What we know:
Number of domains: 2
Order of helices and strands: EHEEHEEHEEHE
CATH class of the largest domain: Alpha Beta
Shape: globular
Helix content: 10-25%
CATH topology of the largest domain: Alpha-Beta Plaits
Oligomer: single chain
Amino acid sequence: MSFxxxxxxxxxxxxxxxxxxxxxxxxxxxxxxxxxxxxxxxxIHLDGPAHPLPLAIAGLDGLREVVALEILxxxxxxxxxxxxxRHAYVFIESEPARTAAIKAAMEAMDPVASCAVVRGxxxxxxxxxxxxxxxxxxxxxxxxxxxxxxxxxxxNRVIDLKQL
Length: 164
């Protein structure tokens, strides 16, 4: 059973994020999207499966690469993120036998806004929130990175497009 999908998109020119996002805002099936800074440019949360790729995503101007992550289970602390805080997506590759324990540990940590077990390009997608990106970086480095069973992680900061 799928609980939706995350689509990670890399654009040929990251400056194309703003025009690309206007088409996603009105697209059916798109639950939420964020412009991010990291190994990808956009993180798009879909209500349903990513295959076939929704036309609004497949038709993004400058789309260079897409990775679809099927959500197998997902938990959220609240219905929406606290917009007063900064946010980052943390994509975690883990030892298969430790994924459930890592998810349980993530769910017990206050800065974690959501945690999803996924299949596709990593094992967990965690949204971390904090007063600043420095606080998020410290939390990821001190509390997440050294958990038993984590092989690799990538962090992508959410960009507030109103500040561009």
